[in-house]
Amino acid sequence: MGAGKTTVGRQLAAELAKTFHDTDHEIERRTGVRVSLIFEIEGEAGFRAREAQVVDQLTQLSDVVVATGGGAVLDPANRERLAQRGVVVYLHGQPRDLWQRTRYDKSRPLLQNGDPLEKLNTLYLQRDPLYREIADIVIDTGRQRAHTLLVQLLPQVKEKCKLSA
pLDDT (tens digit, 9 = 90+) per residue, 97-115? Predict the structure, then answer.
């Protein structure tokens, strides 16, 4: 959450002349409602079921860059699909940096209760090993701008794509 997946993913897709997809945006497009409302009505389990279906469908497409929601890696089937069907980039951010980026964002359901920084720490401990398990490339986001991340990422992605072709 807040690592820059959508922003960097969109820029990466443009540089590689590929189509960009964001799983959260796709879920919102299909349902006609915001992710936060899906969480409210169906809970996290309902949202994750929708997310798994979208991850499966988008990872079967060619010439795409897909940005997943932060929790997509919780599902073993999602991890398997992502790892087997493409080059996986983990935009790694420390919880404090992610909190700085998301602290005023009311559209993130998992951060709306209690202490958001503590929640980000908990999510980090849970998700970081899962991201690392499937990542082909790990980029530390720190406090860098999206363009700086893109400059670091682009040659690595091009090399990985060349190797997997």
Answer: 777 776 656 666 666 677 7
- Contact between 23 and 54 under an 8 Å Cβ cutoff? The reply is yes
Whole-prediction pTM value?
0.86
Domain 5-157, CATH homologous superfamily name and number: P-loop containing nucleotide triphosphate hydrolases (3.40.50.300)
Q: How many CB atoms lie within 10 A of CB 42?
A: 14
Please report, for the chain, the start and end positions of each structural domain, with discontinuous segments joined by +. Answer: 5-157
User: Environment class of residue 91 by beta-carbon count within 10 Å: exposed (0-12), middle (13-18) or buried (19+)?
Assistant: buried
Q: Is 150 helix (H, G, I), strand (E, B) or coil?
A: helix
- Which residues does residue 19 pair with via DSSP β-bridges, in sequence order? 64
